[in-house]
Amino acid sequence: MKYYAVRKGRQTGIFTTWDAAEKQVKGYPGAKYKSFKIKSEAEQFLNGQLSSTSHQSGKPDVKFPTADTDDIILYTDGGARNHGNVKGGHVKSNDKAAWAYLIVTPTNRFSDSGGEFGATNNRMEIMALYEALAYLNAHDLQDSHIHAVLDSKYVLNAINKNWLKGWQRRGWTRSGGQKLENKELWRSLAQELRNFPHLSLYWTKGHADNEGNVFVDRLLNETMDKMKAKAPQTASQRQPVSQPAAKPASSKTHETDLKPSHDTEKSVQDIEHNLKQLGLFDDDDQ
Predict the structure, then answer these.
(1) Which CATH class is domain 72-82+91-226?
(2) Residues paired with residue 203 on neighbouring β-strands, in sequence order
(3) Residue extents of the structural domains in the chain
(4) Residue 40, CB-side half-sphere exposure with 13 Å CA sphere
(5) pTM (2 decimals)?
(6) 78 strand-pairing partners
(7) 3-state SS string over the chain?
(8) 131 pLDDT exceeds 80?
(9) What CDD domains does the annotation carry (predicted)?
(10) CB atoms within 10 A of CB 209
(11) How far is residue 103 CA from its own chain's centroid?
(12) What average pLDDT does range 130-144 have in this prediction?
């Protein structure tokens, strides 16, 4: 059994459920609260004999429970280096984009990142939260009290202001009937969110001094740095072994046995013959 001590909130005291304690501290400026497994420790905290965990609602750099509680802190971020970030610009198929997350539990830290070509910043913000929740769910952490900190008001408002539920009711369309971008991803996120009964989301100012946000921003930029813009695919995606990778158009080549253009037909025939001998070229392939 856990005890939730609220030292500063709408109502102070010790509560035996998070739902009851959350009502006293959520949105309350400068709320101070902490969870304990031993009631006597909760009482000591309530009387000011133990240090507190506090946060200020609505502030950019929110402080949350850390390793001395059972709560989990989650940071997510998404970014893109594309023309879609410029007014009047459009995303190109070889523009880089990436997502990243950092999960802080009482005993460990976990982080991950991935990338796509031709994706928008908003898509990566959604993807970051989805991937983080999928990780937590896969590791049976979905029932924990989770504080998600993100700098995307687009994602935050969609969840906290119930836009997501409205889109779902209307068959995944916007209020005016317009097309909903990233519909399938939003649908997947909505499904994942159902698994998290104690998830709270908070906004933090991006590129500021929130250490968690700075970490995930750096991580996703490292992912984009490693992405090769030669082929529009997910950064971690592997080419199927039976399918040769497409060669990018380039003015340079590393081939040393180039043939004159008038020998092209003969060269193709020779290649086909060699592939047939190896069993890699089948005219009857379905």
Answers:
(1) alpha beta
(2) 150
(3) 3-47, 72-82+91-226
(4) 0
(5) 0.58
(6) 99
(7) CCEEEEEECCCCEEECCHHHHHHHHCCCCCEEEEEECCHHHHHHHHCCCCCCEEECCCCCCCCCCCCCCCCEEEEEEEEEECHHHCCCCCCCCCCEEEEEEEEECCCCEEEEEEEEECCCHHHHHHHHHHHHHHHHHHCCCCCCCEEEEECCHHHHHHHHCCHHHHHHHCCCECCCCCECCCHHHHHHHHHHHCCCCCEEEEECCCCCCCHHHHHHHHHHHHHHHHCCCCCCCCCCCCCCCCCCCCCCCCCCCCCCCCCCHHHHHHHHHHHHHHHHHCCCCCCCCC
(8) yes
(9) RNase_HI_prokaryote_like
(10) 10
(11) 11
(12) 93
Residue 201 makes CB contacts below 8 A (sequence gap 6+) with: 148, 149, 150, 156, 159, 160
Q: Which fold has domain 3-47?
A: Ribonuclease HI; Chain A (3.40.970)
- pLDDT one-digit tens code per residue, 262-282: 443 444 445 445 444 444 344
pLDDT band at 124 (very low <50, low <70, confident <90, very high): very high
